[in-house]
């Protein structure tokens, strides 16, 4: 069977991994406007949080349900590509400054009204916070959500490239923008190519078809610190600057991309690395992070632990998440064509489950 996957980002890679599980002889051709390394994809910028509870405040319950399913699916996907340490499920901590504690308690109350399993969320006092994460000792109160975790997003992208490279029946058509997709057909400037099935996972590249698709700008910063050790994803509730801090313990270990030859991101020995994010701006501007966003993210970070004041900013990334008006993912299936889009800021939380749903309702039906 001859398959085309248009868009070699997060969703496209998970589609391929699922197809290869059922038929190793299938031929897959990836089309992408960038390189097969995927460093321009939103999935490469993401922090990779698996936080279905934290999204419940503003998201529909379907995000929660799909998120839980994805958490079940991720370990096998990572094992498939040999990324054995790219998954962590130690739970997350949400905290706030004393003057903002009312907002945090309101947030937890919303979660507990929306889903019964939110009963597992534990209230932490200062001693319990210190026992769990000693470097969060300045916080007097917080909440622990035990089922949440993270994916090492950058290493997932890198390891999946290496995995696909081992297959002689997987082809990458790099730097090949696609003009249009129809059932079983992919249109490029070279003409039209015919396949048994086409998967459209282009994200914002699919605006020629989805006219209500929009981009939401997100900015993240990477910092290194040698005297702060936070092991779990941590969120700070704040009236203006809600940030997350995601530990990236293994840094670039195992990543071997052409992209790396010009990168200055080698992790300093003895330092811990963290991803700080993310802004959410209604814009499709992909230019570098603004001064305003930098100041807001870093100001909030500094209040989590004063030693972040001496951390080094080693990198920043900007990308745009594809989203529809309702901020919910969309799957469309017809014979010979599947479209998956609108993962918004929930890419790693939703992708395995939404791909599973798309395949069951379309390709495998």
Explain the layout of strands and helices.
Blueprint: E1 2-6, H1 10-22, E2 27-31, H2 42-45, E3 49-50, H3 52-55, H4 61-80, E4 87-88, E5 92-96, H5 101-114, E6 122-125, H6 126-132, E7 141-145, E8 149-151, H7 153-165, E9 170-173, E10 180-182, E11 185-188, E12 191-194, E13 197-200, E14 214-225, E15 234-237, E16 243-247, E17 272-277, H8 291-304, E18 312-323, E19 330-334, E20 337-341, H9 347-361
Parallel strand pairs: 1-2, 1-13, 2-9, 5-15, 13-20
Antiparallel strand pairs: 3-8, 4-8, 5-7, 6-7, 10-11, 11-12, 14-17, 14-18, 15-16, 16-17, 19-20
Helix pairs in contact: 1-9, 4-9
Description:
This protein is an alpha+beta fold and 365 residues long. 28% of the residues lie in helices and 27% in strands. It is built from nine helices and 20 strands. The chain has helices at residues 10-22, 42-45, 52-55, 61-80, 101-114, 126-132, 153-165, 291-304, 347-361, and strands at residues 2-6, 27-31, 49-50, 87-88, 92-96, 122-125, 141-145, 149-151, 170-173, 180-182, 185-188, 191-194, 197-200, 214-225, 234-237, 243-247, 272-277, 312-323, 330-334, 337-341. Strands 6-7-5-15-16-17-14-18 form an eight-stranded mixed β-sheet. A six-stranded mixed β-sheet has the order 9-2-1-13-20-19, covered by helices on one side. Helix 1 crosses helix 9. The radius of gyration is 20 Å and the shape is globular. The relative contact order is 0.20. The mean pLDDT is 92.
């Amino acid at each position: 069977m001859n398959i085309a996957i248009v868009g070699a980002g997060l969703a496209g890679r998970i589609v391929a991994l699922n197809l290869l599980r059922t038929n190793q002889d299938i031929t897959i051709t990836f089309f992408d406007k960038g390189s097969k390394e995927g460093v321009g994809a939103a999935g490469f910028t993401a922090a990779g949080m698996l936080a279905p509870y934290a999204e419940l405040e503003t998201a529909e319950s379907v995000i929660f349900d799909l998120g839980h399913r994805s958490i079940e699916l991720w370990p096998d996907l990572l094992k498939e590509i040999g990324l054995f340490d790219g998954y962590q499920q130690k739970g997350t901590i949400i905290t706030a400054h004393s003057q903002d504690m009312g907002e945090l308690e309101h947030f937890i109350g919303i979660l507990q009204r929306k889903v019964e399993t939110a009963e597992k969320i534990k209230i932490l006092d200062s001693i319990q916070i210190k026992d769990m994460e000693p470097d969060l000792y300045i916080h007097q109160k917080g909440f622990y959500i035990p089922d949440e975790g993270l994916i090492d997003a950058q290493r997932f992208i890198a390891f999946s490239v290496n995995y696909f490279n081992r297959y002689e029946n997987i082809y990458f058509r790099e730097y090949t923008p696609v003009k249009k997709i129809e059932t079983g057909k992919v249109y490029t400037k070279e003409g039209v190519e015919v396949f048994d099935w086409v998967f459209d996972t282009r994200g914002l590249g699919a605006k020629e078809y989805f006219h209500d698709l929009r981009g939401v700008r997100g900015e993240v910063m990477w910092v290194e610190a040698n005297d702060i050790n936070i092991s779990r994803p941590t969120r700070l509730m704040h009236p203006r600057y809600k940030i997350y801090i995601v530990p990236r313990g293994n840094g670039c270990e195992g990543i071997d991309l052409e992209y790396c030859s010009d990168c200055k991101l080698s992790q300093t020995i003895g330092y811990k690395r963290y991803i700080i994010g993310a802004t959410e701006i209604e814009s499709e501007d992909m230019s570098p992070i603004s001064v305003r966003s930098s100041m807001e993210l870093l100001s909030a970070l500094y209040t989590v632990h004063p030693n972040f004041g001496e951390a080094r900013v080693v990198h920043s990334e900007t990308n745009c998440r594809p989203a529809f008006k309702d901020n919910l993912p969309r799957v469309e299936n017809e014979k010979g064509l599947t479209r998956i889009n609108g993962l918004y800021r929930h890419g790693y939380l939703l992708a395995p489950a939404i791909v599973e749903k798309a395949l069951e309702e379309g390709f495998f039906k």
